[in-house]
Write a structure and sequence with these properties.
By secondary structure, the chain is of the alpha+beta class. The protein contains 4 helices and 5 strands; from the N terminus they run ααβββββαα. The mean pLDDT is 88.
Length: 137
């Protein structure tokens, strides 16, 4: 019985997940906006009602305006499919209704940067920042 664990891979080297990439966005935004905005990632285990159902990890990325009662604006959803591992993942841009499927890890970070720079997303974040500054006066 003790040998069962010999077949498991317990190495501490893990590839980054979509969750890791998303959470790395929070601190730079918090610093750049002097604490007025931050990013939060809400993680949920879920499934899609395909046949057969697909188990997924769903990550919802929010920009949080700390001076506006922690108002949260959803920016995007990211889906990791349990049967695939960490990647490929799908990105659904909540602002603009854009869906990118089968994103590999090698392109994920640059795709996030590109999507955050789109005018509809950028304007929304900048607007929250301005409202937060006004509320802090």
């Amino acid at each position: 019985m003790k040998r069962i664990w010999d077949s498991f891979n317990f190495s501490d080297v893990m590839e980054k997940s979509a969750f890791d990439y998303l959470t790395e966005l929070s601190e730079p935004l918090f610093e750049k906006t002097s604490g007025l905005l931050k990013m939060e990632v809400e993680a949920v285990d879920s499934y899609f009602e395909d046949e057969p159902p697909k188990l997924v990890a769903l990550y919802m990325l929010y920009v949080v305006a700390t001076k506006l009662g922690n108002y949260r604006k959803k920016i995007r959803n990211v889906v990791e499919y349990s049967d695939n591992g960490r990647f490929p993942a799908d990105i659904m841009n909540h602002l603009g209704n854009e869906k990118l499927t089968n994103m590999e890890a090698i392109n994920f970070e640059s795709t996030l940067e590109t999507n955050l720079s789109k005018p509809i997303v950028k304007n929304s974040i900048e607007s929250l920042f301005k409202q937060s500054k006004e509320a802090g006066k």
